[in-house]
Amino acid sequence: MTATAPADLVIRNARVFTAAAGDDRLYAGLAVTGGRITAVAAADAELDAHVGPGTTVHDLGGASVVPGLFDAHCHYNHGGMMVLRELVFPSHASLDEVLAAVDTFARDLPEGAWVSGGSWGSTLLPQLSSLAARARLDAVSHGHPVHLYDDSHHNAWVNTEGMRVSGMVVDGSGEYPEGTLQDPGTGELLGVLLERATDTVRTYLAQAQAPTPEEHLEFARKGIEVLNSFGVTGIQDALIREADLVTGHALEEAGQLTLHISSCLWNPGPGRPGHDVAALEALADELGSDLLRTDFVKLALDGVPPAQTAAFEEPYVPSQQWGDHHCGHVTMDPAELVGVLRHNCENGRSTKIHCAGDASVRAAIDGFEVMRREGFADVRFHIAHGQFVRPEDRVRMAELDVVAEISPFLWYPNVIVSAISEVLTEERTARMHPNRELTDRGVLVAGGSDWPVEPLPNLWLGIAGLVTRADPGGRFPGTLWSEEALTVPEALRAFSLNGAVAARLDDEIGSLEVGKCADFVVIDRDPFAIEPAEIAGTRVLSTWFAGEVVYEAASVVPA
Fold first, then answer.
1. What is the pLDDT of residues 290-309, one digit of tens each?
2. Which residues contact 326 (CB under 8 A, 6 or more apart)?
3. Is 72 helix (H, G, I), strand (E, B) or coil?
């Protein structure tokens, strides 16, 4: 009998949830060699054969271990930039609180610098949509241009100076894209810009405050640091441009990339400025690696419900701005969508599509069906967000092997859900995120934060909410369609194995199985032995990437 070679690392006296498909058992420990798992042991005695003179042994004293978490929808560079550079306030902030935050932030800025950040809650949209609100923003901006995004990051509130320096004619005499809100009496711009109406200001802002390569690296490092602190060791970056690829590659070359990244190359569709899809694809082919995958493309077929830019089969509730029959609209026609999907498939790339309303979901699935009929069986198709999916389309998602990528955390009451309830009927709002039905039908449900849409990528809040369908923070009462709750093992897999499978990374990560990367997290509580609501308070004690500690809580760092 051949002797077992000693491992580099042994984790013992633990409660290990591997997240392997169909296996809900808890194991005693792991052995790791060369950054990969070489044994998963049901009892500590099984690990003895893996211990040699050079083996590092960690006795966890019964602590719980789970796979490194996977965030299936994340923007880590922007998240890092938000932490280090931008004005940040909570989405539940009142208008007065937002204005006070701008006042404080703007006072010490150098001349000409922008006040940029967020996120104002979608529930504030009616209050912001007036000349009086724009005047109040001007009064606290100390002469600086201001750009504040909402809690979906699709829409913006901009002051007079921000519009002026960006080249917008504020008095209403210019030509403006749909989504540029104007005063019904004077025609003046209100400063609220929806979806593509934000392009002018955002393009100017991106040039005026373009990060240097060193700043890009700084933002990315901070983003990775924050993700690791929550136990995240894999992400799907849902919108990648050239600078993001260059930055990720530089971090990998320097040995500082402690995340597995699946990159979604941004294809904004026709008419969007400043983006060369072919150049981005060429760069992705050049810089892609096992750690920095570049085999996905991101599209968007609509906006977001609170701004009534998401596309629905049935109208929103009647409003003065949109009338009685407004449904939003799908941004690409069927032929155009099929052409983009076919191009992606022929180049070996999978596709993630932003779909916030049920009409855009249907349009995406129609396109996916054409691709499946044409024989493209080996690529992944994702519905991103997809909180509204009609019953018949839930069936089609299963039949066509379409991933339900659920993000941000909208399966429990919160600010965005409250805003949605103001523009859709109560019955429709109460039927968001049919995660139980999708899971039971065999649809792969993968969870994401959409950070920085979520203030932090704390996936433990999302895991708890999937099980309780209640607000983990206790700010919003009640539950949201509690019949659609998942079990604890299902919720953990949604943020580990399922995300890895969705991103085509499950050969490497997502579960703790022999041969896979030794990415795991030691946490301060047993998620199977507590009330599900308590999972929201989970504290990460240490995060391990390829068998090395990349985060350790201050209280457990050796003196």
1. 999 999 999 999 999 998 99
2. 308, 315, 316, 319
3. strand
User: DSSP code of 435?
Assistant: H
224 within 8 A of 258, measured Cβ to Cβ:
yes
Least-confidence region, from 117-121, 220-224, 269-273? 269-273
Q: Give residue-wise pLDDT tens across range 439-478.
A: 999 999 999 999 999 989 999 999 999 999 999 999 999 9
Please state, in angstroms and rounded to a whole number, the distance separating the CA atoms of residues 390 and 456: 30
Alpha carbon 472 to its chain's center:
18
Let me know: does 512 contact 485? Beta carbons within 8 Å. Answer: no
- Given a contact cutoff of 8 angstroms between Cβ atoms, the answer to whether 384 and 238 are in contact is yes
Burial of 311 (0-12, 13-18, 19+ CB in 10 A): buried
Q: Judging by beta carbons within 10 Å of its beta carbon (0-12, 13-18, 19+), is residue 352 exposed, middle or buried?
A: buried
Give the separation between CA 246 and CA 217, rounded to whole angstroms: 9
d(CA 336, CA 309): 20
Whole-angstrom Cα distance, residue 121 to residue 168? 25
| Ramachandran bin of 430, using left for φ above 0, alpha for ψ from -120 to 50, beta for the remaining angles | alpha
Pairing status of strand 87-88 against strand 115-120 = parallel
Q: What is the mean pLDDT of residues 277-296?
A: 96
**If pLDDT is split at 50, 70 and 90, which confidence band does 3 have?**
low
Alpha carbons 375 and 328: distance in angstroms, whole number = 32
Compute the radius of gyration of the chain from its Cα atoms. Answer: 24
Joined tokens for residue 80: 């890092």
pTM above 0.90, yes or no: yes
Task: Check residue 300 and give left, alpha or beta (phi > 0: left; psi -120 to 50: alpha).
Answer: beta
CA nearest neighbour of 52 among 2, 15, 3, 1: 3
User: Are 198 and 156 spatial neighbours (Cβ–Cβ below 8 Å)?
Assistant: yes
Task: Tell me if 110 sits within 8 A of 118, measured CB to CB.
Answer: no
- Return the C-alpha torsion angle 48, 50, 55, 56, nearest 10: -70
In whole numbers, what is the pLDDT of the chain averaged over residues?
94
Looking at the chain, the number of H-run helices and the number of E-run strands are 18, 24
Is residue 151's pLDDT more than 90? no
Where do we find the tokens 């994401």? 448
- Return all residues near 327 (Cβ < 8 A) that are at least 6 apart: 311, 312, 313, 314, 315, 316, 359
